[in-house]
Amino acid sequence: MAPAADREGYWGPTTSTLDWCEENYSVTWYIAEFWNTVSNLIMIIPPMFGAVQSVRDGLEKRYIASYLALTEVLQI
């Protein structure tokens, strides 16, 4: 496997000067830090599920907005 600096992924060459946890594009060509992305799904999926369930239940739009806002706030 090539060193991370030599590997280019789908989104172009790596521009970061520091790798925190893992090598870029070591698992897939599309995701720079694969395991970091997978571990963050636990923060994204539940609010998305809540938003979908709010739509199905016919709740007010403020509930949908609050669930979607949680996905944004958790990623900052």
Automatic annotation (TrEMBL):
UniProt enzyme class: hydrolase
Write out the pathway annotation from the protein's UniProt entry: Lipid metabolism; sphingolipid metabolism; Sphingolipid metabolism
- What molecular functions are annotated in GO for this chain? metal ion binding; N-acylsphingosine amidohydrolase activity
Tell me which stretches of the chain form a coiled coil: none
Q: Which reaction does it catalyse?
A: N-(9Z-octadecenoyl)-sphing-4-enine + H2O = sphing-4-enine + (9Z)-octadecenoate; an N-acylsphinganine + H2O = sphinganine + a fatty acid; an N-acylsphing-4-enine + H2O = sphing-4-enine + a fatty acid
One Pfam family recorded for the sequence: Ceramidase
Which residues are noted in the entry as Ca(2+)-binding? D19, W20, E22, N24, E33
**Topology of this chain in the membrane:** Multi-pass membrane protein
Q: Indicate the transmembrane segments per the record.
A: none
Q: Give the GO terms filed under biological process for this record.
A: ceramide metabolic process; sphingosine biosynthetic process
A GO cellular-component term linked to this record = membrane
Cell compartment(s), UniProt: Membrane
- Which EC number applies? 3.5.1.-
- Which keywords belong to this entry? Calcium, Hydrolase, Lipid metabolism, Membrane, Metal-binding, Sphingolipid metabolism, Transmembrane, Transmembrane helix
So what does this one do? Hydrolyzes the sphingolipid ceramide into sphingosine and free fatty acid.
Of which family is this protein a member?
Belongs to the alkaline ceramidase family.
Name of the protein: Alkaline ceramidase
